[in-house]
Amino acid sequence: MAANAILFFLLFATLMSVDTQASQPNCPPAKCGHGAPDIRFPFRLKGQQPQHCGQPGFELSCKENTTMIHFPSYGDLVVKSISYHMKKLDLLDPRNCVHGVFLNLNLSLSPFQYYYVVKNYKYINCSARLPTSSFNEIPCLSTGSRDHHIYTVKSSLGVPFSCREVKTIAIPFAYSPYLSDNSFGLGLTWNNLSGANTTQKGIMSKSGFLNIALQDAGLL
């Protein structure tokens, strides 16, 4: 029986050692500059942290001490803050056109979704200005020409005669001239990651192995 107890102890110590080593990869937090958000799993900083330190789609980069994230459907956005507890990524558009982001950003190609509740809105392009009492033109999407005026309207509304529909898309809010902060609504979140499931499966596998070993040792 003493030999069996020694075998159990050796097996347990070996498994604990493997878990401890696996839970401490060489991934210290990184940041792009003073006051910039800490970058750690599931994010990783390109050029400073190995690939195993983050998940695909969570790569960040530094540009003049500013933290950036790249979306192929739109381009680079500034990372204002990261809340790992709330799983929230606050972004800024360097072009100062949040509705340009809403119109072009395709989150289905990324691990993210909007943090805030979204509703379907219709972007319309009009050859003439609509009444300002009912419609708010989006300045950053409208050119200075007379026949290019962009608006957001509820998806249930019909398209005015002088307009054509550009896209209907689920976004956090319609354009309003009273929302001057271009970061408002530009918050993203992410779901549970496959890495957590993989870790859990690894623990289950080790537990199963330990049970088999204990049975063979006559301790179960």
TrEMBL record:
Protein name: RING-type E3 ubiquitin transferase
Keyword vocabulary terms for this entry: Membrane, Metal-binding, Signal, Transferase, Transmembrane, Transmembrane helix, Ubl conjugation pathway, Zinc, Zinc-finger
Organism from which the protein derives: Acer negundo (Box elder)
Pathway entry: Protein modification; protein ubiquitination
Membership in a protein family: Belongs to the RING-type zinc finger family. ATL subfamily.
Enzyme Commission no: 2.3.2.27
Top-rank EC class of the record's enzyme: transferase
UniProt GO molecular function: polysaccharide binding; ubiquitin protein ligase activity; zinc ion binding
Catalytic activity of the protein: S-ubiquitinyl-[E2 ubiquitin-conjugating enzyme]-L-cysteine + [acceptor protein]-L-lysine = [E2 ubiquitin-conjugating enzyme]-L-cysteine + N(6)-ubiquitinyl-[acceptor protein]-L-lysine
Keyword Signal among UniProt keywords: yes
Cited InterPro entries: ATL20-22-like, WAK_GUB
Record domain Wall-associated receptor kinase galacturonan-binding: where: 27-91
